[in-house]
Write a structure and sequence with these properties.
Helices cover about 15% and strands about 40% of the residues. It is α+β, with helices and mostly antiparallel strands. It has two domains: about 35-105, K homology (KH) domain (GMP Synthetase, Chain A, domain 3, 2-Layer Sandwich), CATH 3.30.300.20; about 115-185, SH3 type barrels (Roll).
Amino acid sequence: MIFASIKGIAIFAAKFTTNMSWRGQIVPSFYTSQMDQIKVKTLVDEALAENEALFLIDLNFGTEGSIKVIVDGDSGVPLSECIRISRHVEHNLDREEEDFSLEVTTPNITDPITDPRQYKKNIDRTLKVKTAEENFEGKLMELTDKGITLFWKTREPKPIGKGKITVEKQQTIPLSEIKEAKVKITF
């Protein structure tokens, strides 16, 4: 709350307004009830345990009771699996207790790779990888416990004379050094 006096007139204003809306009073965001996030996480984990090829990328709890579950799979995620996960979570939460909206989706094609299992499914695809020192773009050849191996061809000046030659390069990048990795979309 803010209290100010301007030219002898007292002005009282609430920093977080309490206007009336069709749902009732709007209250400060820190005051709204929190959905049982642990229960939702447990339900998502139970649903993912039924198919070992699937794994959780992200679980977000937004305002107004919105839940966004992002899952990926070793060989993609069929729509039927998104529906199954959604139904498992939705049928085990009580709408009388808490109003919520649930979205189960897969990662966007432009989203960065966040889980090491995503590298495995993208072997033989071109990646753009950023580290603290350099940027790389090459074909993902291998994934190990320690890092990824990229392969690419580049044109470099000849050691003697004018002109350029095509050189094949390979770089192993430790997973701990990768700041961002994205699959390059080619048509």
